Amino acid sequence: MKRLVVIGNGVAGIQFIERLLSMNSSRFDITIIGNEPAYKRYLLSRILQHDMAVEKAKVEDDDWYNQRGIRLIENETAVMIDSLSRQVKTDRGRKIAYDTLVLATGANPHILPVKGAGKTGVMTFRSMEDCKALMEASKRYRKAAVIGAGILGLETAMGLVQQGIDTTVVHHQPNVMNRQLDRLASEMLQEDLETLGVKFALCKRTKEINGEANVQSLTFSDGTLLEIDLVLMAVGVKPNVELAKKSGLEVHRGILVDDYLQTSDPSIYAIGECAEHRGVTYGVIDPILDQAEHLAQTLAGSPKQYHGSTPSTTLNISGISLFSAGQVLETEDTRTYQWIDPIRHIYKKIVTLHGYVIGAILYGDTSEAVILAKLVSRLAPVSDIPSNQLFPEERKRKTNLTLVPRSDQVNRTAQS
Predict the structure, then answer these.
(1) What 3-state DSSP class applies to 388?
(2) CA distance linking residue 368 with residue 391, whole number of Å
(3) What residue ranges define each of the domains in the chain, with the CATH number in brackets?
(4) 87-112 burial by CB neighbour count: b if 16+ within 10 A, else e?
(5) Whole-prediction pTM value?
(6) How confident is the model at residue 392 (pLDDT cuts 50, 70, 90)?
(7) Helix/strand/coil percentages in the chain, nearest 5
(8) Which DSSP symbol is given to 110?
(9) CA-to-CA distance for 89 and 91, rounded, in angstroms?
């Protein structure tokens, strides 16, 4: 039996093992090293918002590992890979031999390099420990600033509001979720979040976090101040590459992998947020599951090349229905059509390039998200858009639904 060691006990590592065992359960002697108990990190925001109990985020219980004959080394950190002797060394002096090693070390929260970032009251939201600390935050803090208006920032802000904390989202751009949404969808989202109690300070760059030992306010680059006592950094993550770098693997932003998710060492693979494939790192769940599936097939003896993923976005906030995939902003070469229902706050948009679907946004009604995700991921021709299904015949009635065609070609397709 081959000795397979997985470093990382999160969703990427566990899903990879699940898929591998379903294909070939007797080929490997499996060890998993995890520096914290396994849980579904992407559900933490729902826990913070009181939408889910902590127990629901647990990936597997101890029986799962025992029943599958998996050796679990928990609360222990891998600190070195000796590629010559093919051993992993841990912070407790343990040495684990491997024939094949899989790195699923995830990512770490990014901290803005601003003056005052080390003060008491500056926090991040990445781990279960962070989640529990934020759930206790209302006992200590009154007013919070969440820096960053991406997915994590908005979900965290909603969680803090649910904790009873007066919360303002600070963002250097004029639109929230500006990487996933166009201006119209962003404005609709902001309006709905404001209704739920979230405040916004847009076009603001944080210059300094003020206070002696504790946070008292933020100073922005335009000279204005925001009085707060809690700062939550939600400005992205950095792939956790320290172990790989220290062990001599090729690293750029992430751990460099080829189309078989193999690193510069043929016996070592990397998947999930720590991996960089064709210059891209992924921080959402679907590409991570794609990589787990591809690597499982490869190690099970049916090599399958991974050509990258088209990530899609949703928002874990109760009462908000949002979906985005692919390229959603127009260029001179793209063609777009949209349906807008301002009364019901519904917006649907498809972006095409040279007759193929390259991006989509749904807001207020995401019932067709699965269809659009498939169209975008396979770059489907415009003729494959099921326009009657996506955009019902409401436009033939006298309603507030407005068709905004951006090209005659797409308009004709929508009406076919």
Answers:
(1) helix
(2) 10
(3) 2-108+237-299 (3.50.50.60), 122-233 (3.50.50.60), 321-415 (3.30.390)
(4) bbbbeeeeebebebbbbbbbbbbeee
(5) 0.91
(6) low
(7) 30, 30, 40
(8) -
(9) 7
d(CA 242, CA 362): 38
Q: Which two tokens stand for residue 190?
A: 């902001």
Q: Which two tokens stand for residue 387?
A: 């326009």
- Give the sheet arrangement for strand 346-353, strand by strand: 312-313, 322-326, 356-363, 346-353, 334-341, 402-405
Dihedrals phi, psi of 392, to nearest 5 degrees: -55, 175
Rg (the chain; Cα; Å):
23
pLDDT tens-digit series, residues 39-88:
888 899 999 999 999 988 987 777 888 888 999 999 999 999 999 999 99
Q: Which of 131, 126, 122, 72 is nearest to 273 (CA)?
A: 126
- Single-letter amino acid, residue 323: F
247-304: per-residue pLDDT in tens? Answer: 999 999 999 999 999 999 999 999 999 999 999 999 999 999 999 999 999 999 999 8
Q: DSSP letters of 300-356?
A: TT----------EE----TT--EEEEE--S--SSEEEEEEEETTTTEEEEEEEETTE
